[in-house]
Amino acid sequence: MKQIAFIGLGHMGAPMAANLLKAGYLLRVFDLVQSAMDGLVPLGANAARSAHDAVDGADVVITMLPASVHVEGLYLGDEGLLKHIAPGTLVLECSTIAPNSARKVHHAAAERNIPMLDAPVSGGTGGAIAGTLTFMVGGDATVLEKARPIFSAMGRNIFHAGGDGAGQVAKVCNNQLLAILMIGTAESLALGVANGLDPVVLSEIMRRSSGGNWALEVYNPWPGVMENAPASRGYNGGFMTSLMAKDLGLAQEAAQVSGSSTPLGGLALSLYRLLLKQGYGEKDFSVVQKLFDH
Ligand code: NAD
Q1: 220: domain CATH number?
Q2: Which residues line ligand 1 (CB under 6 A)?
């Protein structure tokens, strides 16, 4: 059985690591926070003393870190993990980071004959716990086939998006669209209610008409319309506004690199930054409904 080093055991990494343990993989885990490791030891994980210690003798290295700066800091430079990992070790970088950062790590890995994939996920903490994440993978297709059983232990849908960095590009495109759809849904609901409609009735009409979208299907932003949506529990749980703002920032960064015109993505970022200033960073991103007073 493969020995996996899993680094970054936060909201997403810890349940992902737990699913790998359940699938029978041997895990050596590391996080800067000791308690994050302690939670996995009873499930059979071996706690490492450092990231370098975790990757010693590993066949596979998985990272799930907050942002580009953490990923570049861990892998690159003279003290970086890529100088320490044995050639041939499979590196699966699952954090959501800038496509250009992912390409930098790909480049440095290739120089040392270390096969690497950028593989950000969608599905949130619920998907991480249930093992139903979607992986959007960038890199060599033959490397993906080697990694597929590992992804399958943590997720349900595994897409090959394209070459190096393509997984990250797919992720920021999807989340930009998600934000735009959520904002448009919230704005339309507020317009309808202000003009006398019942939000439940309007939601159902739009859901079954040409305005139908994922927010109306499963994630309605108007409180009380959908019992299981974060809007109906004070916008708690779900996908944090701070993470949506981060991903919209990455989309703008990618647009800058490619010279793309993304006016709605830019506006979405501004609206989510406004929500951060209003103290909603930890609330679910459907809290954007509050900007269109309900
Ligand atoms: P988190 O902040 O809960 O966890 C990150 C963990 O990394 C923390 O435990 C932190 O201590 C650890 N860490 C940071 N630097 C480290 C280092 N150098 N060595 C070891 N450990 C280190 O974040 P999260 O919510 O688990 O998200 C992880 C990634 O997944 C992010 O890139 C995020 O954008 C992405 N993501 C999150 C969600 C979500 O719903 N939370 C959904 C999809 C994608």
Answers
A1: 1.10.1040.10
A2: 7-13, 30-33, 36, 51, 64-67, 70, 74, 95-96, 121, 124-125, 239, 243, 246
